[in-house]
Amino acid sequence: MREIGVKTITETVKKLCIEANLYLGEDVLKAFDRGEQAEESAVGKEIFQQLKENARIAREEQVAMCQDTGLAVVFVELGQEAHIVGGDFNQAIHEGVRQGYKDGYLRKSACHCFTRANTKDNTPAIIHLDLVPGDKMKITVAPKGGGSENMSTVNMMTPSDGIEGIKKRVVEWVKQAGSNPCPPVVVGVGIGGTFEQAALIAKKALLRPLGEKNADPQVAALEEELLALVNNLGIGPQGLGGRITALAVHVNMIPCHIASFPLAVNINCHAHRHKEAVI
Amino acid sequence: MGEAIRLQTPLQDAEVEKLRAGDKVLITGVILTGRDAAHKRLFDLLQAGKPLPVDIRGQIIYYVGPAPAKPGQPIGSAGPTTSGRMDVYSPKLMEMGLKGMIGKGMRKKDVVEAMKKYKAVYFAATGGAGALLAKAIKKAEVVAYEDLGPEAINRLEVEDFPVIVVNDTLGNDLYKQGMEKYAR
């Protein structure tokens, strides 16, 4: 059985926390270029230029692209043939977050819910673990800012609402969020499963390379339609008015209970950050 | 959109009243930072009739919780946070003489009304452009509530800090105007 040491896990998480906050992905940079070209508003075009310049400064000067370096959301796909040795798996991840946020000069944004006292090291991390075939471990760190996360929702729709009801609710929700989640946004939509699963698959939809369509043509068509509807809201970059409110809409769908029709919308800002590694 | 207007802090009523939603502005001078926790403390002091640890008259508060500064730099990434969470506190601060707020996202109706009444404006800085915006911040020092960490009140010295007027003293709202123009 292949062994994976907790120290390697910690080092990997640390590295990914820093990289995710400093280096915006090529897919997002390309979406900025497309957005700048397509945007009709002069202010909107200027915002895209600022975002590109911001990404360049972050990359070259090794500073966080956004001061809200988020809660550290960590997705782990663990091969069932692998054996974790040398310590506690969860603690290894928390330690990686602790070190990454300290050494990377990243903001510590975790606090006690009632007293609001900062935990001072950005822990605890949010850990999602999936067991998969194989003997490797894939770690994805997706720092999630508060501004966009606050503009997210789970709705228990009813089967009679149908796809039209889903479209209506998603568009209403993005409209209500307006300028708050730092548009241009990426909209993650989770349809189906249970209450908590809908939210999780909505978040996982945000990990897909920007603009890559769902493999199911019916879902892909919904993504395309939702993107057009959302962009017709006119919110535009930073909410100052324009044609590009969202860079993409990603939908994940799984079966649900015969009585249910769960819908989750997880909005991400344009700092669409995540980095992964396989160990 | 025309050329940017240059503003020097502290702000005078006359120059604040000239600003219009949609104006591009470059701010130079001293501005204060404050977000959720600091606002609550300031508000509680005012409610108790006690003095504030900083003079906010004629000042601008920037809603930001900066990332830590790397060695040799004045500040880390420093973009705006969502302003709506400060809505419950802002009218009281404007009543006490606050002239400007910098953040991102919509303000509630009573905040917009307070801007008309007390002659104050709300500016948007580009959310998520914290590395870029930090370039306009030349100096930062904590002046109150150090225990709040990233939420402490800082005194920032800024040069040509780029913002855009969202709400002016006439009640105009760039977010509404912009959306109406581009909606289909």
Task: Summarize the model shown.
The complex is a heterodimer of chains A (279) and B (184). Chain A is α/β, with parallel strands linked by helices and 279 residues long.
Note down, in words, how this protein is organized.
The complex is a heterodimer of chains A (279) and B (184). Helix content of chain A is 40%, strand content 25%. Chain A is α/β, with parallel strands linked by helices and 279 residues long. Chain A folds into two domains: 2-20 and 65-144, no CATH class; 147-272, no CATH class. In chain A, the strands form three sheets. Chain A has a four-stranded mixed sheet with strand order 4-2-5-10. Chain A has a four-stranded mixed sheet with strand order 6-9-7-8. A two-stranded parallel ribbon of chain A has the order 1-3. The two termini of chain A are 14 Å apart. By secondary structure, chain B is α/β, with parallel strands linked by helices. Chain B has a single domain, classed as Alpha-Beta Barrel (fumarase), CATH 3.20.130. Chain B has helices at 13-18, 36-47, 90-95, 109-118, 130-134, 174-182, and strands spanning 5-8, 24-33, 60-62, 100-103, 121-124, 137-144, 153-167. A five-stranded mixed barrel of chain B has the order 2-3-4-5-7. Chain B is globular and about 45 Å long. Classes of the chains: A alpha/beta (279), B alpha/beta (184).
What is the tally of beta strands of chain B? 7
Please identify, by name, the CATH architecture of chain B. Alpha-Beta Barrel
Q: Indicate the percent of residues in helices of chain B.
A: 25-40%
When the domains of chain A are counted, the total is: 2
Largest interface, with Cβ-Cβ < 8 Å?
A-B, 51 and 46 residues
Seen as an oligomer or otherwise, the chain set is heterodimer
Query: Span from first to last CA of chain B?
Result: 22 Å
Total DSSP E strands of chain A? 10
